[in-house]
Amino acid sequence: MHTLAIFFLVLPLCQGELFPVAARFILPGYRYPPGSPWPHPRVWGNTSELVTLNPSNFLLTSNTDCDVITGAIDRYRPLIFIDPDAVVSSDLVAIPSLTIQVLTDEHCTLFPQLDSDPDYEAYTLDIPSSGGAKVEAKTIWGALRGLETFSQLVWTLKDDNGNSFAVANVTKIEDKPRFPHRGILLDTARHFLTVETLKRNLDAMAYNKFNVFHWHLTDDQAFPYQSQVFPLLSEKGAYTQRHLFRQDDVREVMEYARLRGIRVIPEIDSPGHTHAMRKGHPELLTACYGDGVNPGTPDYPNHADREVLDPSKNSTYEFMKTLFQELKDLFQDKFLHLGMDEVKHACWESSPEIQNFMTENGIQDYSQLEQYYINRHVAMIQGLGSRYISYQDPIELGLDLGDALVQVWKDGELGGEFSSWQDYMMMVTGKGYQVIFSSCWYLNYISYGEDWRRYYECDPTNFPGTEEERSLVVGGEAAVWGEFVDGVNLEARLWPRASAVAERLWSDPVDVLGNTDDALFRIHQHRCRMLRFTSWFFWSFWFDEREVTNSNFAGEE
Ligand SMILES: *[C@@H]1O[C@H](CO)[C@@H](O)[C@H](O)[C@H]1NC(C)=O
Ligand SMILES: *[C@@H]1O[C@H](CO)[C@@H](O)[C@H](O)[C@H]1NC(C)=O
Ligand SMILES: *[C@@H]1O[C@H](CO)[C@@H](O)[C@H](O)[C@H]1NC(C)=O
Q1: 154: closest CA among 260, 78, 76, 81?
Q2: Nearest to 156 by CA among 555, 539, 499, 556
Q3: Which domains does the chain have, with CATH numbers?
Q4: Any idea which ligand is nearest the CA of 318?
Q5: Which residues lie with the beta carbon below 6 Å from any ligand 1 atom?
Q6: Are residues 223 and 189 in contact, defined by beta-carbon separation less than 8 angstroms?
């Protein structure tokens, strides 16, 4: 039902040429020819020489039998030859094959990771005027990106005979990402998202060369992750026992992601955003004294009955250690996301136990208490041999996050002490932290029209820091928080708006990309391509590919 809804909403726009909202305005941008890739490759040679592919004997091969590559070949062949009516052109030279060459397939047994090697996802793609085409990459992950690009170069040409052909321009592409961390944050706590929905999103991520799925698993509203060590968390904390991520569900998502070169980073947000954990494990959370007398009483809107972990008990840290050990073993990423945002102190302030603890330990104020929690939680995570990501919030209180990778999410509008995201970037990088940037890219906020332009124009290094401070940016994430988003509207809200973020994080040099008027023609193509790829079953019956022929672009110039 989800697929159908989106399909019918957007289909008409993909059947015609790209037209302005009013007939008398002329779109100013450069008319990219059909088969133009997204995100923009670093070096993209082009000629006007066309070659064709013959679906019946086109060979897609590789020098590795790694399942990431063989799986990708099986997946991409039907996407490349998606037009069921295409026949072979007699006028054009047919290239016989695409060969994928990796230098090493040593990553095949591993999940993708944050890697500082600039060639970790690099590839070259060579389509000569005769002979076979080639993708060459150092790693299987780079080869995946190259195959994705190749699939985007193939389009359908309608010639005078009315026939359609799968065609690619002769070209040579050299490409690698600008940032190693390019993510999408999905929230499965405010509303549950099914494994099917997550997989469809992973597909779309792969079409945009995103490589991190930041999984905000749990929050105040629900705890859908089924822990083996602490099953009560989800038994009591999930919406229902049908709205659960079992260990096998997680493994299924991770395998799907691995085959697409995407990391999955789990987040269990604490010490705040833990209200749902109180149902299975009330002892973990500070009992608030809302009426001044009884533990576990709310004082709305200052605090609930229990909503922040209890920093005063050793058992809290032991619990979290056991839980994170399980997450580390299951998710197998070097990084765990610890949350640490929006810790409200009102509940702690209401608790005589917390005040006694502070007096006994010489803790002067509630910020220091938060620091105490951070220190012990972080020491525990480091004890597991993991690295960790934290939202920026503790830094605003002047607290120390150790060697955290810090996710900057605030700007003037999202609240906080500063009026722009640049100020937050200055603050965090000024203290030497590496940064993941999200402030501009809260896609759960919606507005009418082409708001992707705003996301596209926001560059995470565009703040007045030193060269060294700007080099601390390791990437960014587009976030879709789940308060008003579930499986019905997630996809429509994310794509193609997140594609703008994808190009911002992948493409370099930045100055080729100054202009959203130009990008418009490519993002439009890309949107249609994604639609075709994700609903290819319907597409093969309904879609008429006239929109990607040259003739539609002629006359607009
Ligand atoms: C292709 O070549 C033309 C002419 O050199 C250039 O203007 C254009 O930007 C190039 N790239 C693409 C993607 O068309
Ligand atoms: C591909 O070839 C066509 C037909 O000659 C040409 O119009 C188009 O500009 C070429 N595409 C690129 C990216 O150069
Ligand atoms: C709690 O842990 C701290 C730090 O490891 C230790 O110093 C303290 O003795 C422990 N308290 C109890 C009651 O076990």
Answers
A1: 81
A2: 539
A3: 43-175 (3.30.379.10), 181-486 (3.20.20.80)
A4: 3
A5: 32, 36, 44, 46
A6: yes
> What residue owns the CA closest to ligand 2's atom 5?
48
* Residue 320 vs residues 10, 210, 384: alpha-carbon distances, Å: 45, 30, 11
Threshold 0.90, pTM exceeds: yes
| Ligand 2 proximity of 228 Cβ (cutoff 6 Å) | no
Residue whose CB lies within 8 A of the most ligand 1 atoms, among 46, 50, 173, 525, for a mutation test: 46
Which residue out of 342, 413, 483, 556 is catalytically annotated?
342
**CA proximity to 204, closest of 427, 542, 515, 480:** 480
Q: What residue owns the CA closest to ligand 1's atom 10?
A: 46
Query: Of all protein residues, whose CA lies closest to atom 4 belonging to ligand 2?
Result: 48
Instruction: Compute, in angstroms, the gap from residue 183 CA to the centroid of ligand 3.
Output: 38
Question: What one-character DSSP code corresponds to residue 93?
Answer: E
Distance in Å, CA 81 to ligand 3 centroid: 64
Is residue 256 within 8 Å of residue 202, measured between CB atoms? yes
Q: What is the pLDDT along the chain (557 residues), one digit of tens a residue?
A: 333 333 333 333 465 567 676 777 788 888 888 889 999 999 998 778 889 998 889 999 999 999 999 999 999 999 998 877 777 777 888 999 999 999 999 999 999 999 989 999 999 999 998 899 999 999 999 999 999 999 999 988 877 766 667 777 888 999 999 999 999 999 999 999 999 999 999 999 999 999 999 999 999 999 999 999 999 999 999 999 999 999 999 999 999 999 999 999 999 999 999 999 999 999 999 999 999 999 999 999 999 999 999 999 999 999 999 999 999 999 999 999 999 999 999 999 999 999 999 999 999 999 999 999 999 999 999 999 999 999 999 999 999 999 999 999 999 877 678 999 999 999 999 999 999 999 999 999 999 888 999 999 999 999 999 999 999 999 999 999 999 999 999 999 999 999 999 999 999 876 667 789 999 989 999 998 898 776 544 443 334 333 333 323 322 32
Q: Which residues of 160-179 are buried (b: 16+ CB within 10 A; e: fewer)?
A: eeeebbbbbbbbbbebbbbb
DSSP string across 423-450: HHHHHHHHTT-EEEE-TT-BTTS--SS-
Buried-exposed string 393-404: b where 16+ CB fall within 10 A, e elsewhere: bbbbeebebeeb
Contacts of 533 (CB under 8 A, 6+ apart): 79, 82, 203, 207
Tell me the sheet residues that pair with 551: none
Catalytic status, residue 342:
yes
